[in-house]
Write a structure and sequence with these properties.
Radius of gyration: 11 Å
CATH class: Alpha Beta
Helix content: 25-40%
Structural class: alpha+beta
Largest sheet: 4 strands, mixed
Number of domains: 1
Distance between the termini: 13 Å
CATH topology: Translation Initiation Factor IF3
CATH superfamily: TusA-like domain
Length: about 80
């Protein structure tokens, strides 16, 4: 298992989901992907994409400044 970070700050829907999907395809089951984004819609869109595609959301939170969203997911099989 290894950890990876994907920075999609400043990107608007649907780009954060598309880039998350593209990155997930390169990773092995059990790898952890931390997605950094600023689009509020990603808080709902990325977890929905995870449910559909068999990945697990480990955390989904907004940082203290209210501008940075950090979604951490585990890649499924």
């Amino acid at each position: 298992m290894s950890a990876h970070t994907l920075d999609v700050k400043g990107q608007l829907c649907p780009i954060p989901v598309i880039r998350t999907q593209n990155q997930a395809k390169k990773l092995a089951p059990g790898d952890v992907l931390e997605v950094l984004c600023t689009d509020p819609g990603a808080m709902h869109d990325i977890p929905a994409w995870c449910r559909i595609n068999g990945h697990t959301v480990l955390s989904n939170k907004t940082r203290e400044d209210g501008k940075l969203i950090v979604i951490t997911l585990e890649i499924g099989a």
